[in-house]
């Protein structure tokens, strides 16, 4: 059996797959973000449960938010406890087996490119839009990745001055160490920040209620959502101008908002060259399970860089 583990900023999902990627077990738990020892202990407990269930020492593939530097140390804006730690090496020692790890967006993109919504397309950009915002580009089934392994980190494009001035947006520091990253405005928590900023009394509501009020015709929520779509359109137009994908596959919690998926191509259009059409935008085929599925696939499918 293969354990695919999708580590997110708010939840960890573990799933057990056979060699044909048929899923047998799936479990989700909250992510410990501040205590590294607790984080490692939880991963070990989850893997031990899978091993015990199948009486087999499973292969383990892990997707995590962030990057690994040249010294094997992790940087994650959304899980502070793993930043600066050699997570992959520590898990190999703790679990007493080989552990294959990669950025969670690469895992998501691998699953959606090979078997999912991007299957059959030459240039597939898969983007997670949830607690954070990042993605990965596959070309002809191969990952497009440079030596720093930061390709696809669209959430850390800086907020453009013209949009900051248009909406008088407050400056935001990002967990990556930079300031005014687009992730702070277009990821799920960003929609909440926009609502608080644009509400006359600076009231705060969660993402789900912003969407609910928008659907009910609330004028503040409509204004917030229009601002959000413009910010998102600018962000994804940058992806198109840099990578020219045939299709964009959206995953993460915000991809479940149908208005975002349907409106994104039109929202990109003002920021593209005249007569350049935006790519197809679709929701992920595997939805919430793409990350764990891709993590499992990592153990069997070597990632080859696109030339």
From TrEMBL:
UniProt catalytic activity: N-acetyl-D-glucosamine + ATP = N-acetyl-D-glucosamine 6-phosphate + ADP + H(+)
Family annotation (InterPro entries): ATPase_NBD (IPR043129), ROK (IPR000600)
Enzyme Commission designation: 2.7.1.59
Record's keyword terms, sorted: ATP-binding, Carbohydrate metabolism, Kinase, Metal-binding, Nucleotide-binding, Transferase, Zinc
Entry-linked Pfam families: ROK
Matching PANTHER family: N-ACETYL-D-GLUCOSAMINE KINASE (PTHR18964:SF162), ROK (REPRESSOR, ORF, KINASE) FAMILY (PTHR18964)
Designated name of the protein: N-acetylglucosamine kinase
Organism: Parashewanella spongiae
Lineage: Bacteria, Pseudomonadati, Pseudomonadota, Gammaproteobacteria, Alteromonadales
């Amino acid at each position: 059996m293969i354990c695919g583990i999708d580590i997110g900023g708010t939840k960890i999902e573990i799933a057990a797959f056979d060699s044909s990627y048929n899923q047998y077990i799936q479990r989700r738990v909250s992510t410990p973000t501040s205590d590294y020892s607790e984080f490692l202990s939880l991963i070990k407990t989850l893997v031990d449960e899978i091993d015990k269930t199948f009486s087999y020492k499973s292969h383990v593939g892990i997707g995590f938010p962030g990057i690994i530097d040249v010294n094997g140390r992790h940087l994650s804006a959304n899980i502070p406890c793993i930043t600066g730690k050699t997570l992959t090496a520590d898990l190999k020692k703790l679990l007493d087996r080989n552990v294959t790890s990669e950025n969670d967006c690469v895992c998501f993109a691998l699953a959606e490119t090979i078997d999912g919504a991007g299957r059959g397309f030459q240039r597939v950009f898969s983007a997670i839009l949830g607690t954070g915002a990042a993605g990965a580009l596959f070309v002809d089934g191969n990952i497009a990745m440079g030596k720093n392994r930061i390709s696809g980190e669209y959430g850390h494009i800086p907020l453009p001055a013209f949009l900051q001035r248009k909406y008088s947006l407050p400056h935001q520091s990002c967990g990556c160490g930079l300031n005014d990253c687009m992730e702070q405005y277009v990821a799920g928590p960003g929609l909440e920040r926009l609502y608080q900023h644009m509400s006359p009394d600076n009231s705060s509501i969660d993402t789900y209620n912003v969407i609910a009020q928008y659907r009910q015709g609330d004028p503040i929520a409509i204004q917030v959502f229009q601002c959000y779509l413009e910010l998102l359109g600018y962000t994804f137009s940058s992806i198109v101008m840099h990578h020219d994908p045939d299709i964009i596959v959206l995953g993460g919690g915000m991809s479940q908002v149908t208005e975002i998926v349907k409106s994104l191509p039109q929202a990109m259009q003002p920021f593209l060259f005249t007569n350049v059409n935006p790519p197809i935008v679709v929701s992920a085929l595997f939805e919430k399970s793409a990350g764990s599925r891709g993590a499992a696939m990592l153990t069997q499918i070597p990632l080859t860089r696109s030339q």
